[in-house]
Design goal:
136 residues; mainly alpha
């Protein structure tokens, strides 16, 4: 029981960290520097998930979802927060924009299939990412 409580606290903490990071790069009315954004995102992902942006991009597409859901710290809320983070990061990482967007879309689609309830917000995010990919 104690192990489950610890893991739940870790999952909750990761959700807060991802949310704060997303707020930091999207909020406050100022546009953060692209290199600073990538540095901060990679650092936070490395500290909390032992991944960075480049490592996420290196995971083959056919293994990506299995790798993501295999991480014990990523529950469905955290997966969506990570997808949101990748979408925002793609705005600052033009060299890998499409790859980041594809991975975010994969996570949204996984969540759409695995959840029993329909999410208008997630559906809008998916449509936005698809539109962005089609324009590239």
């Amino acid at each position: 029981m104690e192990k489950q409580d610890y893991l739940k606290r870790q999952i909750d903490q990761l959700g807060k960290v991802l949310g704060e990071l997303l707020a930091k790069i999207t909020g406050s009315g100022k546009n953060p520097d692209a290199s600073e954004t990538l540095k901060v995102v990679s650092q936070v992902l490395n500290e909390n998930l032992d991944w960075n942006i480049d490592q996420l991009l290196e995971i083959p597409e056919n293994e990506f979802i299995d790798t993501i859901i295999g991480n014990q710290l990523l529950n469905k809320l955290n997966i969506e927060a990570l997808a949101d983070l990748l979408v925002e990061t793609a705005k600052h990482h033009s060299a890998n924009k499409n790859r980041l967007l594809k991975r975010a879309l994969m996570m949204y689609e996984y969540l759409e299939k695995s959840n029993k309830t329909f999410s208008f917000t997630r559906n809008q995010k998916m449509e936005s990412v698809k539109k962005e990919l089609s324009q590239s």
